Amino acid sequence: MPGTSANAVYLGHHLGSRDPQHISRWAQALTAGRRAAPKCEGDTASGAPCQSCRCEGARHCRHHLHQGRAEDRERAEKRLEKRHADVLKFGGTAIQVHRAHAGLRRLARLRLHRRWKHDPRVEGSTIAFADEADQVRVRRWLVSNCGVDIAAPVVACSDVQAHMSSPRALDRCLWAGWRIVRSNVGLTDQFIENAKLRVKAAVRDDARFWASWAALGEPNETNAAE
Q: Does the pTM exceed 0.70?
């Protein structure tokens, strides 16, 4: 595409032709804006202050947002949720709609994981299978390779009656098995071993939760039914 002037340079379909001096001024303005913008209050791995710009309505950048106050995190999540909802409500391009749906699902997963940290019994799941056959394949792999039947009651320790696995443990086991089942060709032994370790960690953490839960004298499902 020919330039609009002798000094113009074609930069592609979206930017068109721009004068190099204009590009230089634009880059300098961007740099000055980043330097003047409020900085993140988080720290890097080396302990130095983070120099990234804050997210809108928060005190931390997108990398350190989880380290901020709960109010900052909630405000930022609501802002993102509203932005995605506006795209679905008022319309947008196919890519924008796809990103909006993905963003809402991502926010739902983050909130569910946060709730699971306090109570693994909260109902929910972060994995969705295309059909029932995929879930059956995953469950068969868990039984045959890890000895874990997620559909059967388990016992955390001798002091705890049999109960079903928590939704958090089910979710972690299904994800570990799905990573194997969906890529059944060219898997290394280390990859398979890592999946088994994830299942083992999920079962271990679930057993620890139920043991601590029973130590507090909380009634389980069996006692509640009686």
A: no
- For residues 165 and 28, give the distance between their C-alpha atoms in angstroms, rounded to a whole number: 57
Q: Give 1's contacts (C-beta < 8 A, 6+ positions apart).
A: 10, 16, 17
Structural domain contains residue 108: no
- pLDDT digits over 31-79, tens only? 888 888 888 887 776 667 888 888 877 777 877 776 656 666 777 778 8
Q: Using an 8 Å Cβ cutoff, are 43 and 57 in contact?
A: no
Q: Mean pLDDT, to the nearest integer, of 121-146?
A: 90
Q: Which residue has the tokens 């693994």?
A: 120
Residue 198 is predicted with a pLDDT of 92
Total structural domains within the chain: 2
Q: Which domain holds residue 190?
A: 132-225
Q: Confirm whether 198 is domain-assigned.
A: yes
Quickly tell me which residue has 């988080």 as its tokens: 42
CA-based R_g, the chain, Å: 25
**Alpha-helical regions (H) of the chain:** 20-36, 70-90, 94-118, 132-141, 167-181, 189-215, 221-225
Distance CA 191, CA 182 (A): 13
- Orientation angle between helical segments 167-181 and 189-215, nearest 10 degrees: 170
Q: Is 158 exposed, middle or buried (0-12, 13-18, 19+ CB in 10 A)?
A: exposed
